Amino acid sequence: MRPAIGQPFKARSTEELMALLSAVATAILAVIIIAMLYFGREIFVPIALAILLSFVLAPLVVILQRIRVPRVLAVVSVAILAFAFIFAMGSLLATQLTQLAGDLPRYQSTISEKIQSIRDTKAGRGTLERASDMLKDLGKEIDKPKEAAPARAPNAILNSNAAGPQAPVPVEVRQPDPGALESLRTLIAPLVHPLATTFIIIIFVIFILLQREDLRNRLIRLAGSYDLQRTTAALDDAAGRLSRLFLTQLILNSAFGIVIGLGLWLIGTPSAILWGILATVLRFVPYIGAVIAAAFPLALAVAVDPGWSMLLWTLALFLTVEPIVGHVVEPMVYGHSTGLSPVAVVAAATFWTALWGPIGLVLATPLTVCLVVLGRHVERLEFLDVMFGDRPALSPPEIFYQRMLAGDPAEAAEKAEEFLKERSLASYYDEVALKGLQLAQLDAERGALDQVRLAKIRDAVREFASDLADQDDRPPTKIHPTTDAEASSAVESVAENAAFENLPVLGKESLPADWQGEHPVLCMAGRGLVDEAAAIMLAQLSTAHGLAARIEGAEALSTTNVFRLETTGVAVVCLVYLDSSGPAHMRYSVRRLRRKLPKAIIILGCWIRDIDPAALEALRENAKADLVAASLGDAVKLCIEATGVTDASQAESRPEASAIVAA
Cα 286 to the chain's mean position, in Å? Predict the structure, then answer.
């Protein structure tokens, strides 16, 4: 027996070792990539700028090609115009900086006068200032030199002067005047690096625009996708979206800079064009870009204006324009988000700034958006979307299962209440909670959950259902779609769930005599604690429709316990299974219940993951059950139909759903 036990352990150890080696290799690769980005920033920064510029310029190239301009001519023309505009902005920026540097000495006196006026307007000197003056006076007393030594005799002084050495003669070394070539070299040296970088960017932009399709195909090859058609379409769509996003951001930020520049010019702030260009560039920096852009003209307003009106007008300008652009214009133009989570934005800004300095801060968001888009469309890079994207890392069923596993139903109830603002309780149970329990069942079948954890999940589901006890099974009574897409979504939502979202809420007085018991519905777990958790949800949903239900655990189905089962007033039994390995157990359980409750209707709730209707019906026939339900909503619907309630009472309870569909 020992080898049989050791073999799985050895295989598991080998798998764990391989997983550890894979993680170490991934970490080493990440370190190598980061080191390459840091030490090779002289090369990678121009490439990154070229890629982003190509996204911005690609729509213009496409427009020219549509009017029959040859591709090479279209690319070269767009690149020349773009870089001519960039050089013009750079020249204007340099002129503004030179003018500002020449005017700075004039502002020093204004700042000194303001500081002095602030001091003079203080109502007396404070305690700290008086204490500071006292300490300064004490320091001066301590630092006073000692009394001078007694004067020596005049003869001694004359003798010492005569014997002493002569004072050294100062020597001054002067460089010869530089020649014309040396002066030219000194002038050109600072410009060599920026010009070389600009030349590299131009070459890369032209190359990327000319070879877009070839670069796309190479990226597909690197991604290793088995579905070339799908991946090609996805990357084309991603490239189009990125182009529109970056071009829209550039236009919007440029408009922001123009408004700021005009406003500062009207206020009278010097170098208004400089601050407008700076506002355009810095607004690419998330969160703090506009604050940094505002800091410079605010400081200059303090230095220029003897009063405080310029400072207040400048502050009012930024406090008015930035919220309008950020919270009104941007959501209207390209939505509320760029697809990045707030944490990812901050982390990306920190990472790229540490790698590439200020230029990395400006490029942080665009580069991270590119990585996230690649992660959404390339399977091997999906981790980028998980890490940096704004989409939830876990699906709603996974969140439900995780919260039940952690014994925290309060957060799950909060998520459910958000869901119930648009959908019914039955929809939530079937689309979220039941799928979450199916995940728990899969973990239980592979031995990942022991009985203690399963009992914890069952208890958390009971508490969760108790938190939702006051919820009825009705979607919102009023839905006001603001767009055609939202209206279509509302109609589809109702239509997809019409099978159980139009169920009535029954009154006890309207039920037949054999349904007048205290608990006419008995919800029983089939095999385990996960089945019991599903039975708890079914009982809560049935009670919400006016059919009071009680729950029994799986132990009640044993041969000994089934005949002790309290069945007074029970009209229907819902036998719940999430376990896919128990057809024989279903048959024996139905047989025992039939002996105990010969007149009751037995509904088999077989909610196995990904089971098809034909297999479901085969399980019902094998178990000899009366009915079979594919979902919680179907089970409640079968219970209500079994009561024989008239159609008139059903139509009375849910008028709003038909109104939505009719709209």
Answer: 14
Higher pLDDT, 486 or 469: 469
Instruction: For residue 445, give the H/E element and its range.
Output: helix 434-445
Residues 6+ apart with CB under 8 A from 264: 272, 275, 276, 297, 314, 317
> What is the Cα–Cα distance from 448 to 122, expressed in whole angstroms?
72
Compute the distance between CA of residue 663 and CA of residue 649 in angstroms, rounded to an integer: 23
Q: What is the pLDDT of residue 228?
A: 66
Helix, strand or coil, per DSSP, at residue 603: strand
* Residues 578, 27: Cα–Cα separation, whole Å: 40
**Would the pLDDT of 518 be above 50?**
yes
Residue 574 near residue 524, CB atoms below 8 Å: yes
- CATH 3.40.50.280 is held by the domain 505-653: yes
**C-alpha gyration radius of the chain:** 39
Lowest mean pLDDT among 41-45, 375-379, 445-449: 375-379
* DSSP codes joined into one string, 491-518: HHHHHHTHHHHT-----GGGS-GGG-SS
Alpha-carbon dihedral sign for residues 205, 210, 213, 218? negative
Beta bridge partners, 549, equal 521
pLDDT tens-digit readout, 96-117: 888 777 777 777 777 776 666 6
For the chain, what are the domain ranges?
2-39, 234-336, 396-498, 505-653
Say how far apart CA 56 and CA 45 lie, in whole Å: 17
Q: Which residues contact 628 (CB under 8 A, 6 or more apart)?
A: 603, 604, 605, 606, 616, 617, 619, 620
Q: How far apart are CA 191 and CA 495, in angstroms?
A: 67
Residue 378, pLDDT > 80, answer no
- At residue 177, the pLDDT reads 62
* Axis-axis angle for helices 342-356, 358-377 (nearest 10): 130
From first CA to last CA, the distance across the chain in angstroms is 70
